[in-house]
Amino acid sequence: MLEIRWHGRGGQGAKTAAFLLGEALATTGKYVQAFPEYGPERTGAPVVAYDRVSDEPIRVHSPVTTPRYVVVLDLTLAAAVDLAAGVPDDGMILVNTGKAPDEVRRTLKLDGRPIRVLTVDAHRISLQTLKRSIPNTPMLGALVKAAELLPREQFMQAMRDNLSHKFHGRPHLVEANMAAIEQAYEEVAAR
Q: Which residue windows are transmembrane per the record (predicted)?
């Protein structure tokens, strides 16, 4: 079973990203869970969301404690949360930042651990494409590319379908989100 943990702040779309990824992964015929863990529900409060995907029915119904992949929408959470908690040495942490992976590795206190750290500036990408700082969809593109979760065309079609449903009647939002996803998909590979 593959497990993914999302860290963000209220309003950044961690829950939505987990759900969109779950829907995309479901197109493969696998069993999927996507769910948030709530604390104080307010804009800016820490939020955690999870995905599980498996070839077998998933009988676990608890938070993800040993994620293979962690997606961080806001690096300032590192001051209060151990973002690498439970990540195995062959895992990966993907962070929304303009900083280099080596600098993020120091921030996360990962020296000596072989966890892969990747970065993509989803804030910048979302400002360019969405005209607002909503890093969730760019981070989806970066995660799918970095973790090789789905073939590109299958992922992009699933995202277009899901976003068209979510933003029914607002095709400009679908296209802006697709542009953000595609840009981050390309940029994470350059790091």
A: none
